[in-house]
Design goal:
The protein is an alpha/beta fold. 42% of the residues lie in helices and 16% in strands. Helix 5 (102-107) links the parallel strand 1 (91-95) and strand 2 (114-118). The longest helix is centred in the N-terminal third of the chain and has 19 residues, at 67-85.
């Protein structure tokens, strides 16, 4: 349950980024701010002052160097993969969706159903937010409350039935989810993904196992103490093991990269930012 308290962090940073000049902005998300509590919205609006925004980013970078830009680039990467496949898929299934505004971002240009899974409390709050901000979207976004470490997605009979009735392949997303799961939780999720229709797609992130094992902290000592030592981040892979892991469940690895592979060096230099290699990005296709 510790993971539930981290769900607001990425969308908060995404909302903060929208105050950067457009030509220097890493990622555009016009909907992130509506996912925040009223108190957090007030706080984030202070980020219109460059000195305040830069202070927050600087403080974040001290604890997790390269983490701020890495989060934004991973969102950009996953969105671009979805858009590149949107004509080939019948729906998007976001496992561990949190408070991310992806359904709003994608639906603003593409008419595609979304199925979002996360803790019951998170999904209830998110549904309420969308009810107030974009009620028409509720016809296309379906929320399912589930604890991925203790509940099996396969037991959500309504979800399984709806997905089975769709004709085209599906697109699955697990953004910043796998590190929070136990081995049993990972096994359960990927057993569900093993049943995905042929030619479905999967985009997910994972934390490097060498970091979790303390063998290479990559200058994230503070994050290691906060997330690993406290038992919040538990599961990881490496580039050498991700292919075999996916093959076990009938998926073909297409890409396994870090945000550094897709970041703009020129833009990062202008912003005085860097990206971290602690978290990796994966894109795969169902065989």
């Amino acid at each position: 349950m510790k993971a539930i308290n981290t769900g607001n962090e990425p969308v908060t940073l995404s909302a903060m980024e929208q105050f950067a000049d457009k030509d220097l902005r890493i990622f555009t998300d016009d909907y992130a701010i509506i996912m925040l509590t009223p108190g957090m919205r007030f706080f984030i609006r202070l980020c219109r002052f460059p000195w305040f925004r830069n202070w927050i980013i600087s403080s974040s970078e001290k604890a997790m160097p390269g983490g701020y830009a890495g989060i934004l680039y991973r969102k950009q990467y996953i969105d671009q993969k979805i858009i590149s496949c949107v004509d080939k898929i019948s729906a998007l299934v976001e496992i561990g969706a949190g408070y991310d505004s992806r359904a709003l971002r994608i639906s603003s240009n593409y008419c595609i159903p979304f199925f979002e899974l996360d803790y019951q409390k998170t999904m209830a709050e998110k549904k309420s937010i969308i009810q107030r901000s974009a009620p028409s979207l509720l016809n296309r976004v379906h929320f399912y409350g589930i604890d991925l470490d203790h509940d099996k997605i396969d037991d959500e009979q309504k979800l399984v039935k709806e997905l089975t009735q769709l004709k085209k392949p599906l697109f699955f997303v697990l953004e910043a989810v796998t590190q929070y799961l136990t081995e049993n939780g990972i096994e359960s999720v990927f057993q569900f993904l093993e049943k995905a229709p042929e030619d479905s797609y999967l985009a997910f992130t994972y934390v490097d196992r060498d970091f979790l094992g303390g063998r290479d902290l990559m200058h994230w000592e503070a994050a290691y103490r906060k997330y690993v030592k406290q038992g919040i981040w538990r599961f990881g892979l490496t580039k050498k093991t991700s292919k075999a892991f996916l093959n076990k469940y009938g998926w073909e690895l297409l890409e396994d990269i870090t945000p550094e592979n897709i970041s703009s060096k020129e833009l990062l230099a202008k912003r005085g930012l860097q990206v971290s290699s602690v978290e990796r990005l994966v894109f795969a296709r169902k065989l």
